[in-house]
Specification:
2 domains, alpha/beta, Rossmann fold, 18 helices, seven-stranded parallel β-sheet, 17 strands
Length: 466
Amino acid sequence: MSHFLREVEEKYDVSSIRVDGEQVWPYLRIAYATSYLFKGRRMRRTRSKTLAGSIIDSIGKLFYGFGGWFRQYDYVIFSTSRSNVRKRIEGKYFDRFADPLADVLGRDKTLVIEDPEPDHLPKEEVYTKNITGIYPIYLLSAVKRKLSPGPLEIVGQTTLDQIKKDYGLEVDDERIIRTFRSRYSAYKRFFKHLKPSFVFIVCSYYDMGKVKAAKDLDIKVVEIQHGSTGEGHEAYNIYADLNRVFYPDHVLVFGKRDAEVLERGRFVEAGNAYTVGSFYIDYIKHNFKPDTSLVNRLKKFNKVVGVTLQSTVEDDLIDFIITSAALDRDIGYILIPRHPIERDYSSLILPDNIIVELEREFYELMPYIDIHSTVYSSCAVEAPSLGAPNILVNINNLSKLYFSSLLGDERTSRYVETPQEFLKAVRSFSGIERESVARLNEDIIKPGYPDNIKLFVEKVVRQGRA
């Protein structure tokens, strides 16, 4: 998608596409890239609830942590309730992005605004002290959109129409622009009430209205890296002259390689990407306790490969692994679905050296496996820090597009095109110690998160408020 955007942004005058004098391409570009990726294919959806169930569900989400709105905070963190974000630690569900940061900023001074994906957890079960749901903002946004005046005048609509025609895309420009403008207005209203000095966002590019709203109020915006930011990622690589008001002031990144890519890709200004590492990687490394039953289940294999699946290439990757598994039955494979509830994996016909793991996710499984494999999941960035080198299956050239800038020197990763190459790569990693693999990944994920995040807060946040 990044290569598609490079071509578009070098060919068309996208920076001049405006509504009421303001650029709209910074957020339209994500929709265009997504349409390009899924052109001719249907995105897999989760099962929908009944109308009555949806209404009841929405009301519950609207009032989740509602009391949190009735005071002011120095800091606001936007996060999500996804299972890959909230982890159960010492009896509480801990947000691996928001909570360690709030602990340093001051839990009393910080509000976490959570997007329920799919649902909020009971407040008594979460570690976060001040937490509320994002639905009041969504409701105000929906009201503002309903009350918005007539048709939009998009200066440069002919350019957008030409892009859609040339690439065979379907994008509703007006709907996206109206949604952005109503979200922007709602966020601005809430920020004026909450009065934070810093806003932290786990993923800024899917809802950029909050970024612009904060910056228009002179509130500093910091993005917290949540996954891959490589040169193949459409959101983090910009090729046109786009207004910086749509992008964060600072980014907290895993390591220096991500910092270099983000600054080179013009997502953040030079010097404003700070390497802090990963809280959860450090936690897993220092707190892993093996499950004897799983250890015994896997000991019959000479090597165990953990395979992180992705919805966009899942069927192709499963077929590839089935073929690879037949070449050597002494190698075991664990398939790790990204969204296990969205598919009935029990219907798959698999050889006995392939296991589908539905109870444990990527981080919990890495200490048990010898090698990690995927196509272009951001787990490839993290696996070596947990001692597991990568074999990246280069389906549709996606592995190299996403990771060549980060994982291109083959210290911890191999790229393969065929099952025969896959088997050869598995054997090439024999005898490499996990600690050595982790050390080789330190420029990608910096160790020592607790000290690193304290240094960032002291250097940027505290001094920024002085």
